[in-house]
Design goal:
Structural class: alpha/beta
Order of helices and strands: EEEHEEHEHHHHEHEHEEEE
Number of strands: 12
Distance between the termini: 27 Å
Radius of gyration: 17 Å
Strand order of the largest sheet: 6-7-8-3-9-10
Strand content: 25-35%
Bound molecules: adenosine-5'-triphosphate
Shape: globular
Helix content: 25-40%
Number of helices: 8
Oligomer: single chain
Mean pLDDT: 93
Largest sheet: 6 strands, mixed
Length: 228
């Protein structure tokens, strides 16, 4: 088991955003968390990635309780968040944005691998990141996370605001990452596409998380559905 959330709760003052969430993630899986706006998905990812404090419960990463570690230590241990909204720095170059993802000098060498995986970033490495399209900025946000050599990626709503074709390309990139041995916990609004690429699915509703095992059905044409 690479990651396990046990009875995890996350609060903002009196607002309880995540209520006793349980989740398991095996190495090499893509697991999707689906649910309406405000259900608590980003809060759960933020806590798992070390960006938000845990109210109660446990976060087990490679068997160790990492609640309270903080994002920097999580990244150094191979678990990195790609945040909703991408957060690229618009007036810095593409390459400078990528370098923001490194946590050691040695990781600068990872640029070559990222440019092989995402040649568009190489072509535009000297340009301001703010000039990239939404889909290109999403590639950059994923590339920036890859700079730290993560084994586990938390990816929050990567297709938000993207045209269907661009959204599909981003999800294909996530599949390619899995093929490279990465594990992905994916929050997605695009139910159909998320079901297509994920191994297992959870649904989040009003802070509560439930695995939707068994109902996922992949059809002959490769599409999948489930009773959401
Ligand atoms: P979305 O798809 O809109 O991002 P979500 O499922 O990711 O939704 P969260 O963003 O985790 O949901 O929000 C869960 C709950 O926590 C909501 O009621 C939201 O209003 C509340 N919340 C989120 N961030 C904060 C914050 N910084 N301060 C106070 N409340 C917050």
């Amino acid at each position: 088991m690479l990651l396990e959330l046990r009875d995890l709760s996350v609060c903002y003052g009196r607002i309880q955003a995540v209520r006793g969430a349980n989740l398991r993630l095996e190495a090499g899986e893509i697991v999707a968390v689906l649910g309406a706006n405000g259900a608590g998905k980003s809060s759960m990812l933020g806590a798992a990635a070390g960006l938000l404090p845990v109210e109660s419960g446990r976060i087990l990463y490679e068997g160790r309780d990492v609640a309270g570690w903080g994002a920097c230590r999580m990244v150094r241990s191979g678990a990195c968040l790609v945040p909703e909204g991408r957060y690229v720095v618009g007036d810095m170059s593409v390459e400078e944005n990528l370098l923001l993802g490194t946590v050691s000098r040695r990781q600068r060498d990872n640029l070559d691998g990222i440019y092989r995986l995402l040649p568009m970033l190489k072509e535009r490495r000297g340009q301001q990141a703010g000039l990239l399209s939404g889909g290109e900025q999403q590639q950059l946000a994923i590339g920036r996370a890859l700079m730290s050599d993560p084994k586990l990626l938390f990816i929050d709503e990567p297709t938000l605001g993207l045209a269907p074709k661009t959204a599909r390309q981003v999800l294909e990139l996530i599949c390619a990452l899995r093929a490279q041995g990465k594990t992905v916990l994916l929050v997605e609004q695009n139910v159909r596409q998320a079901l297509r690429i994920s191994d297992r699915v959870y649904r989040m509703e009003k802070g509560r998380l439930e695995e939707r095992g068994g109902e996922k059905t992949v059809q002959n044409d490769g599409t999948a559905f489930c009773d959401f």
